[in-house]
Design brief:
- By secondary structure, the chain is mainly α.
- The protein has a single domain, classed as Tetracycline Repressor, domain 2.
- Helix content is 71%, strand content 0%.
- It is built from 8 helices and no strands.
- Helix 1 crosses helix 2 and helix 3 packs parallel to helix 6.
- The chain is elongated, with a radius of gyration of 19 Å.
- The protein starts with a helix and ends in an 8-residue tail after the last helix.
Length: 197
């Protein structure tokens, strides 16, 4: 019987547990024992899948950023008009921050400084691919007269504004994600606030 799928499943479960624990407790305050307990294995078994705790953090970040980039690219390709593309990217990033990838996204946004210098460089290179999608959309929006500000600065502001929603926004609350995305688009483009239905 081939054991690879089971090993891959355990590795994937470790990555998911690490994302959750690193988000909740922070990378430095999460022990290998806690990671092992979260997936029901012995502490030493973690090192059958990863060489070090930092390798686990790196796996969380790379798998998350690759998934983020894939979803953002798909969202950007689904819309051809600059305003629709911008709307799709805002909505997708909100979904990434509050959906099934939320733990990994929070870790990728806020824990990358826990990596060693070489791994930081690799993670930042992966994030550049993600950011390029945003910058291209913002440049198109500027060329279409939808925004006036510099696309790079606009993206930095959006990164902070969207990222901060993990602290205050609740998708199951009175403000749905579509309306929040539209409010953000109104702020970025300088258009009036959308009416609530």
């Amino acid at each position: 019987m081939n054991r690879t799928p089971r090993l891959d499943d355990r590795r994937d479960r470790l990555i998911a547990a690490a994302a959750r624990l690193f988000r909740q407790r922070g990378y430095e305050r999460t022990s290998v024992r806690q990671l092992a307990d979260a997936v029901g294995i012995l502490s030493g078994s973690v090192f059958h899948h990863f060489a070090s705790k930092e390798d686990i953090l790196m796996a969380v970040m790379t798998t998350t950023i690759e998934a983020m980039t894939e979803r953002l690219q798909a969202a950007g390709c689904s819309a051809t008009a600059p305003l629709e593309r911008l709307r799709a990217l805002v909505r997708t990033e909100l979904d990434l921050l509050h959906g099934d990838t939320r733990d990994g996204v929070a870790v990728a946004f806020f824990q990358w400084h826990s990596l060693g210098e070489g791994n930081q460089t690799r993670v930042l290179a992966l994030r550049e691919d993600y950011e390029r999608i945003w910058l291209k959309a913002l440049e198109a929006a500027r060329a279409a007269g939808l925004i006036r500000a510099d696309p790079f600065i606009t993206r930095r502001l959006l990164t902070g504004a969207l990222g901060w929603t993990i602290y205050w926004y609740r998708p199951d609350g009175p403000l749905d994600t579509d309306h929040l995305a539209e409010e953000i688009i109104c702020l970025v483009t300088g258009r009036g606030s959308p009416s609530r239905h």
